[in-house]
Design goal:
Elements lengths: L1 E5 L2 H13 L4 E4 L10 E5 L9 H10 L8 E5 L8 H12 L3 E5 L7 E4 L2 E4 L2 E2 L18 H4 L8 E4 L10 E5 L4 H8 L6 E5 L1 H11 L17 E6 L4 H12 L4 E3 L2 H5 L5 H17 L2 E5 L8 H21 L2 E7 L1 H11 L3 E9 L2 E6 L6 E5 L12
Parallel strand pairs: 1-3, 1-4, 2-3, 4-11, 5-10, 5-11, 9-10, 12-14, 12-15, 13-14, 15-18
Antiparallel strand pairs: 2-16, 6-7, 7-8, 16-17, 17-18
């Protein structure tokens, strides 16, 4: 078995989907269970946005795992290094008794690269992209060293695979500009080294670790009949463009009321009215979108409050309408919704598109959930 640890649900899903493409059975666990027959298990610790002790959470997540059954480990981090990346990585290195970690967050397949110590997306410095507007982790720099808050006692190096000295211990930030760079970096992962990073590095690791008979292939999306609900909680322009596209196709959009967006205390009457509006839309359409379309506000407390409102609304709709597939845009929103629904284990089916992952709820109702990071686009076939 391969064990990967991610700090949010969309990252966990992205890694699991890469495994599915290689023919592995893949399961995501929010509620960690010791027994599973899956080839790949991805634990979602939900430590990117949730308050608490990320090191303790990493330790607790791994305590129930039978290490004897694990062939190798992977630490999934946010591709643009949001969250408690260095702290969690150092904790996992200590737990697994690894001297070093090769950290390759760049995803060159999505034009996300690290060069000369700087992070670029589509040729633009990170702090000049939409990530500068993240309400909780706004990118104020593109310097990868400054993006990481390295804890005491953990050293950090930035290297290309050509300049890497295998005798260096600590976190090695991998400069990556191509898939070949990731292939070269994968060759340095040995029994003393923890592999960490994004989905492209995990793909390179699978190509190196799995038998040559296993190669990536497209898996089929499950055909789900019944009503579908889209929950768009991301502040990214990509998400807003998708909502506009869906609206132009005639899909009803129920945006959060302006007063709920502004107030720090939820108005139960307004929430009930919003729920009624969504249910009314579902009475005449088999699809509906609920979204936050107001201008971006950098206020973490407001963001958390809005996620809780969205999660509560989704729970009410799920219990009132026969929603068979739920589509959620944004990792923090997905975490809030899935926790509210008390869905904790998911069997990964396939990808609609890069990072857009369909899963079946393993326990309880026969429901499907499709999630993606807010910065990734919805593929056109989602709306068909």
């Amino acid at each position: 078995m391969i064990l990967a640890v991610a700090d949010d649900i969309t990252g966990a899903a992205e890694i699991a989907a890469v495994g599915r493409a290689f023919g592995l059975t893949a399961q995501i666990q929010i509620k960690v269970t010791a027994s599973t027959s899956s080839d790949l298990v991805v634990i979602d610790t939900d430590t990117r946005y949730r308050a608490g002790n990320p090191v303790r959470d990493i330790e607790q997540a791994m305590v129930n795992i039978d290490s004897a059954s694990i062939e190798w480990y992977y630490k999934k981090v946010d591709s643009v290094l949001r969250g408690n990346v260095a702290e969690e990585l150092c904790a996992m290195m200590r737990i697994l008794q690894r001297d070093k970690a090769i950290l390759a967050p760049a995803n060159p397949a999505k034009a996300r690269v690290i060069s000369n110590g700087q992070y670029f997306i589509d040729g633009r410095l990170l702090y000049k992209t939409d990530f500068a507007n993240d309400p909780e982790y706004p990118a104020t720099t593109s310097d990868v060293v400054k993006l990481l808050n390295v804890p005491d006692g953990c050293t950090l190096f930035v290297r290309t695979w050509r300049t890497y000295n295998n005798s260096e211990n600590g976190i090695i930030i991998a400069e990556v500009e191509s898939m070949n760079d990731l292939v070269q970096w994968s060759k340095y992962v040995d029994e003393r080294t923890l592999a960490a990073g994004g989905s492209d590095f995990f793909r390179a690791m699978l190509k190196r670790k799995l038998p040559s008979s296993k190669s990536p292939s497209e898996t089929d999306i499950a055909a789900v009949s019944g009503k579908k609900m889209f929950v768009c909680g991301s502040t990214s322009q990509t998400s807003r463009n998708a909502v506009a596209q869906a609206s132009n196709l005639g899909i009803p959009v129920c945006s959060i009321p302006e007063t709920l967006f502004k107030d720090t205390i939820a108005d139960d009457t307004l929430i009930a009215q919003w729920i009624d509006d969504i249910l009314e839309a579902l009475s005449t359409s088999d699809r509906v979108i609920i979204a936050i379309l107001q201008p971006v506000v950098r206020d973490s407390k407001l963001s958390q409050n809005l996620r809780m409102i969205l999660a509560a609304v989704v729970q009410k709709i799920i219990s009132s309408a026969k929603i068979k597939e739920l589509f959620i845009d944004g990792g923090a929103t997905a975490e809030a919704v899935l926790h509210k629904l008390q869905w904790g284990t998911f069997d990964v089916i396939a990808e609609y598109g890069p990072g857009v992952v369909q899963m079946r709820v393993s326990e309880g109702p026969d429901n499907y959930v499709t999630i993606k990071p807010g910065s990734y686009p919805w593929p056109d076939r989602i709306w068909m």
